[in-house]
Amino acid sequence: MRAAVATQAGDTATAIAAYEKLMASSRTPASARNQMLMSEATMAYTAKNYAAASSAISRYLKVAGPNPQMQLLLVQSLYLQRDYAGVLRTVGPMVNADIAAGRKPGESVLQMQAASAVALKDADTASQAYAMLARYYGKKEYWALLLHELVTRSTIPDSLQLDVYRIRLAAGDSLQARDYMDMAEIALQQHLPQLACDLMAQGYTAGVLGTGAEAPRQARLRAMAEKAAADRKATSAADEQAALAQSGGDALFLVGYNAVLSGQAAHGLALMQQAITKGVSDPAVASLHLGLAQLQANQPKEAAVTLGHITGKGPVYDIAQLWLLRLAQGQAPG
To answer: Which residue in 334, 332, 329 sits closest to 142, CA to CA?
Structure first.
């Protein structure tokens, strides 16, 4: 009676104390005890006593089992306490269980996971949360957050900057003239002149390049890329023979990638796969670029398989996941 009267009067502390005494009694049935725990948690949350709410919900879930409503309330209680580590510990298994059961993870749960990861400077978890928000809810702002998190991440090595640019381009992110110039210059540095030509062409088609005071410099870079592509094509047979003679596969992989970019898809892909079998210095990056080459060759199913084999944490995995997300949404690569 004390618990009921205190609840009606809004006296949360007295009501919770009464419920605790009832739950401690051996005469209280288990079903009633679980209901009291749920009531206690709800009252504590309403009173903004989030620590008490978290404790009651955790006890409830331990004895009563999973309950979506109470699990969400637990995440909210932890988040409002700024217990971001607790949010990540709680949300991870929830999201995994939803995915395993074929259910869509809750949008607010994923939002709190992403925000908590950002607060803890856990870039990998934040990226994965944004990716799931973009996958399951398809809002432009989630793609924007996902790309922003990737672009601003300080741990991405220079060797992957071109790959960051390319997924941004494919996702429709707004790129400036300087970005197209950077992409082309990096592609030339990585000995991919045809890719440099293609990227410059996209910049001109988009109307970003070819105007203003920088137009002459842009034209010179485009001419340089076209000459380098022609030179590379002229020596492709000799380059292939030299690469085949090497014990490692890095040079052969580059020859194959250039062949795909130049329109020799079948031959180039075969060389790239042969190179991976021989052994390359970074298998994850090689798989990423093989997947992109398969997309270039209009083989989206094969690309999805290749990109899906990239595992672990880090920027290569995250970039691969973004391409998989584009494919899952039925978007053609840019």
So the answer is: 329
Single pTM value for the model: 0.74
Residues with Cβ within 8 Å of residue 15, at least 6 apart in sequence? 2, 3, 6, 7, 40, 43
Per-residue confidence of the chain (334 residues) as pLDDT tens digits? Answer: 555 555 555 556 666 665 566 555 566 556 666 676 777 778 778 878 899 889 888 888 887 888 888 899 999 999 999 999 999 999 999 999 999 999 999 999 999 999 999 999 998 888 889 888 988 887 888 888 888 888 887 778 889 999 999 999 998 888 999 999 999 999 999 999 999 999 999 999 999 999 999 999 999 999 999 999 999 999 999 999 999 999 999 999 999 999 999 999 999 999 999 999 999 999 999 999 999 999 999 999 999 999 999 988 788 998 998 999 889 876 544 4
Do 295 and 323 meet the contact criterion of CB atoms below 8 Å apart? yes
- Burial degree of 254 (CB within 10 A; 0-12, 13-18, 19+): buried
Residue 190 in tokens: 């990585």
Residues 6 or more apart whose CB falls under 8 angstroms from that of 326 comprise 167, 170, 171, 333
Measured CA to CA, the distance from residue 235 to residue 240 in angstroms comes to 9
**Run of H or E residues at 96:** helix 84-100
Biggest alpha carbon–alpha carbon distance for the chain = 92
Dist CA 198 CA 21 (whole Å): 73
End-to-end, the C-alpha distance of the chain in Å comes to 67
Q: Output the CA–CA distances (angstroms, integers) from residue 85 to 105, 120, 300, in the order listed.
A: 19, 8, 38
CB contact at 8 A, 53 and 45: yes
DSSP 55-82: HHHHHHHHHH---HHHHHHHHHHHHHTT
